[in-house]
Amino acid sequence: MHPPEPLPMYGEQHARGYQTVEDLTVADCVLAHLESEEVDAVFGVPGGNIAPFQQGMRKHPSIRFIIASHEGGAAFMADGYARATGKLGVCMVTAGPGATNALTGVASANLDQVPLLAISGQVATDRFGMSAIQESNGTHGVNTVEVFRNSCAASTGIVDAQSFPRLLARALRTAQGLPGGAAHLSIPSNIARQRIERVTLPTTRGTFRARPPAAPFEDLRAAFSMLRTARRPLIFLGSGAREAMATQGEAFSAFVTQHGIPVATSLRGKGLFSERDPLSLGVLGLCGSKRAEAYLREGVDVLVVLGSRLGEWATRSFHKHFQAVRNVIQVDVNAANIGQFLPVRLPIVADVGSVMAGLSELGQMIGPSSGARVRERWAQVMALVDQPLVPRAPQSEGSVKPQHLMAELDAQLRPDMDLYIDMGNCTGWATHCLHVSAPTRIFFPCGLSSMGWSCGAVIGGKVGRPERAAVAFTGDGAFLMNGTELLTAARHRVGTVTLVLNDNFLGMVNHGERAQDSSYPLEDEFYGLGNPDLEAFSMSLGARAHTVKGPGQLSALMPEVLRRADADRQPQVIIAHVDYREVPPFGERFAAVAADGR
After folding, report:
1. Which residues pair with 93 in a beta bridge?
2. Tell me, which fold does domain 18-202 have in CATH?
3. pLDDT per residue over 69-94, tens digit each?
4. Which helix (H) or strand (E) holds 248?
5. What is residue 265's three-state secondary structure?
6. Domain extents for the chain?
């Protein structure tokens, strides 16, 4: 064994992309690592216990501190930033209530496996056990390290400066590892100011990112053989295939076209495979397309799952038609995701991109089993009809049908657009009605299914990718929860667009309860919102507000609203008054909730 090489002096570069720096504070060590990861924005709410970080960012040449209205909104912003950029999202909050306020956003990112670093402050260590203001440890107050430990991938309390670089590196590896998620560090204010004798810093982005293994050739050959001979195969793309489709999308499309294999996606995978491709079945899951539902109902003999856990959103509440599939191939970087719903004949713990590349290469070398088989597969897909949702009630004065609104939004989708879809009726309408094709992107917070997510995520996404149009789609209930983040967008001149479905009800639970017990009328004020003036609310926070009250108005408004958002760098809000009587396409979910416990 060779003796370890001596560490280089200050500023000297390692051969493998590292440099060693001497006499750096803990706070500056964090910012140096974020700079190496090309993070240019941190989202949070200031407080005395994170003062060293605030002071460092005020002087930093490339990292902005985006101050949110609420810590939960800040965490949602960090989530949106990570999804839009592919980089690490960072949320920084003070101790006590700052940390607990951020918890929902951090947990949401973690469950969706979004790489996020949450840093919360802590009182100085010499004040532990003295009932100091916002003390947050096992001695007094809420132990935020333990609270976060049950809500994210890793949570660590920092106890000294010299061990901090090692613990920070571990948190960064966890957040950007496999499967990835949120990591939390609780840093006392006195330790944040302490100096570290010597720190080894990466000089390039991605140092802490894990690289998944490639699929073994024998697994690729077995998967290809099963697909090649299948009569009714189906490839199912989850959000874990996002990166793979960015690099292998063209080859994958050529492969499924050559072999006549239809492709469906989960809700979070929506748009990864063009929904206007003839072989696309759209979303197969809650609120999914009728074509996908019909294809699955008529039988699938080989199902290839690429990057999906097959949770309730993806499986139409664990529908029996999924359970009828006997030959399942499931590919995921996380072995724990495989087989949690369906028995899997061929589990492959590997990079999804390597499987796509391997199947494409085998397809080129060997080809389909026969031309007749390929023609039969194409005929089966082409025979499927996707019937649009027809309004159930006549058009009412002063409102627009959600189905009509979605058709107008669908026509306004642009290649440079990112859509951030909230939880509620808006989830169902967007999933069922929009047709998304790359490079247009659409994001959902399905893991925790938290209302109000889009109000923050759209801001973080626009900060990270200012050249793309950032559009949030939310309901009025969720907008009332987190719409105050419009003030954050206005203060920081972030030109977002927010489309609000305004029906004056908590619509999803209103319709869901009626599906269980029709004796309650939809007009019952139990779930009513009290008719708040959302246009005035938006303008009071610095946004420009627009109103839609009839068919055709969104089509007329949208181009100008998108132009103003970028030209004026001002948030734009469209309040769309929709007919509350229209039932969102949540049939399986409503039925599953109604059946629970019976």
Report:
1. 120
2. Rossmann fold (3.40.50)
3. 999 999 999 999 999 999 999 999 99
4. helix 242-259
5. strand
6. 18-202, 217-382, 402-595
